[in-house]
Design a protein that fits this description.
The chain is α+β, with helices and mostly antiparallel strands. It has two helices and four strands; from the N terminus they run E-H-E-E-H-E.
Length: 92
């Protein structure tokens, strides 16, 4: 089942966003299972919203890439949440 994941980073900024994207390499080589990604400012930090084909795909990315990138850049997310989502139907 597909999931949407939100990550909130206190003190995050556009500059930290660019450093994180560079470290993760998601713009040049998106991870398997990532369907979409959006990020932007929130009070006191930055929020990233991603859509994944399954919880397992996100968890593998989190373990192998995301957490090491957070550690390298000295970032500590205040919240990581995951929600299951169903298929989208569009009436034409």
């Amino acid at each position: 089942m597909a999931v949407v994941v939100t990550v909130e980073i206190p003190g995050g900024s556009p500059e930290l966003e660019q450093a994180m994207l560079q470290e993760l390499g998601v713009l040049t080589s998106p991870p398997t299972g990532l369907h979409f990604r959006a990020g932007g400012p929130i009070p006191g930090g930055w929020r990233v919203i991603t859509g994944w084909e399954s919880p397992e795909r996100f968890q593998g990315f989190q373990r192998e890439k995301l957490q090491p990138a957070f550690d390298k850049l000295g970032l500590r997310p205040s919240r990581i949440e995951m929600w299951p989502v169903g298929p989208i139907q569009v009436n034409s």
